[in-house]
Amino acid sequence: MSKIEWKPGNMLYPLPVVMVTAADDEGHDNIITVAWAGTVCTNPPMVSISIRPERHTWKMIRDTGEFVINLTTEKLAYATDYCGVKSGRDVDKFLETGLTREAAAHVGAPMIKESPVSIECRVREGKDYGSHWVFTADVLAVHVDKDYMDEKGKFDLAAARPIVYSHGEYYGLGKQLGTFGYSIKKRRKKKQKK
Ligand SMILES: Cc1cc2nc3c(=O)[nH]c(=O)nc-3n(C[C@H](O)[C@H](O)[C@H](O)COP(=O)(O)O)c2cc1C
Prior knowledge:
By secondary structure, the protein is mostly beta strands. The protein has one domain (about 15-170): Roll (Pnp Oxidase, Chain A). The protein has 3 helices and 12 strands; from the N terminus they run βββββαβααββββββ. β2 and β3 (about 30-35) form a beta hairpin. It starts with 14 loop residues before the first strand and ends in a 23-residue tail after the last strand.
């Protein structure tokens, strides 16, 4: 294998692509599609999103310090793309996509009912890094769709058919290759044939 060196850029793919919801203090809300999102810390649970200041949603998040991360699925792929190419300055994205607002428990931003997982967040810090501001935030609550809870109380995220974003393209998850720690689990001894 031989590699070509490129100038510095963003090539950390694939990534989850999420729909972030926010609201202002006058009762307006909005949805923005975000791929620059990440986990910051397990305990306390913290996440980050990177948003350009020119986005309509940026001011809502900066002013209120609140947002909701809504995970996306194959069924929501079209709406996810739409919310990433249209601005809330020009359209009501809930109306145009047919997505449903649901009141969150701890923040003023709405959750998206059709999303299997909605994560309520409160900003700890907003930092200007250049093209993007990074908002690091505490997770206040996680809401999961009961339809994907199995009889043992395990949440089956794969059944919701989440999507990823990779170098300009959306994909489903594909087949499972293993589970956490499978590489060091003892292999069952095969019964030797006599
Ligand atoms: C797949 C995808 C990922 C995106 N990721 C980001 C992101 O991480 N940060 C950002 O500021 N904009 C991102 N965008 C662009 C915004 O979603 C887009 O500019 C949107 O129209 C802004 O909406 P708003 O003006 O209503 O806030 C992404 C768009 C797409 C399609």
